[in-house]
Amino acid sequence: MPRASWKGFLRLSLVSCPIYLSPAATRTKSIRLHQVWQPMAERGGPIADEEEEEQSVRPTRRSFVENIGGDAPLFPTRVVLHPHDPHTGEEIEREEVVKGYEYERGQFVTFTAEELKALDVESSKIIDLETFVPRAGVDPIYFNTPYYVYPDGRIADETFGVVGAAMREADTVGIGRVTLSRRERPVMIEPRGAGMVLVTLRASEEVRASSFATANTDIDADMVAVASMIIKRRSGHFDPAAFRDRYQDALRELIEAKMKGLPVRLKEIAKPRPVVDLMAALKRSLAQEIGTAAKPKRKAAGDRRQTSLLLPVSGKKANVTSAPAAAVTARPRRRKA
Question: What are the extents of the domains in the chain?
Fold first, then answer.
């Protein structure tokens, strides 16, 4: 059973069934960089190796063990943040930290967990399918977080299946609301196989209006045709497994090089040159996609006949030169009057 992040009911008019949501997306385990205190040397720069190369940076393998003495540590030390009193600097117990709202500078109203719990609305436990729209009618710019929707228990299977089949037959998706992490959000629910997928939607105030210019009607049709050919050459199917996080790969290589004390060479990304002649750039791009066109092979000078039109000749070895003669039919002689 997948991990449930929300439990409640899916309701269509007077019909409801218990469901639970399970995250459909996960965050890949990326390399985490921490805040580290690295003391500065007396000369005003970071402590470096005595034998530092000019062309590359050769780091020292440092230990993160704190110094026992009272002096400042000589090696980088991870910074740990704790809640503290801003006036005295004394550490505060986490149990004493509550939710609060600053209505004026330095003036707060605080809330207990019970008071916040009493604010729950109907969507905290029920996703009411209020309306149904075509799938293409929901702009993807509003998509936020996807979840898988599962029936919660065998008693919900029949109702869950009927609602999903009805949406599939009508070719529509359901729009409702759900409260997650004390935020009520609009959601879109669509059938997916034997289950459903729920996608939380951004609110209207969370999406900025575009500032696109009006469509340019003076676009060169020939340029569009060349660009379309390039797009056609690159047409394919979306494969998420084909994409890797190249930044994380580069960061991992950098960490391994520093741990081994290897020189680190800094790379620069070449900036593209500005396009002066757009049509020429498009043609070069198309030629690069197609590759160097192979020149057609010349046929032998002694035989310029179209071999594809020659009739087959029986025998172990076909005599190509005799084929046309066999194909010629003798004309009948005219009778003398």
Answer: 6-23+120-206
Highest mean pLDDT among 10-14, 33-37, 71-75, 144-148: 144-148
* pLDDT for the residue numbered 61: 44
**DSSP line for 92-133:** --GGG--EEEEEETTEEEEE-HHHHHTT--GGGTEEE--EEE
At 213-241, the pLDDT tens digits run: 777 678 889 999 999 998 998 888 989 88
Distance separating alpha carbons of residues 13 and 174, to the nearest angstrom: 12
Token pair for 275: 């396009």
Closest CA to 323 of 334, 336, 312: 312
Residue 96 in contact with residue 110, Cβ under 8 Å?
A: no
CB–CB of 242/37 below 8 Å? Answer: no
CATH topology of domain 6-23+120-206: Ku70; Chain: A; Domain 2 (2.40.290)
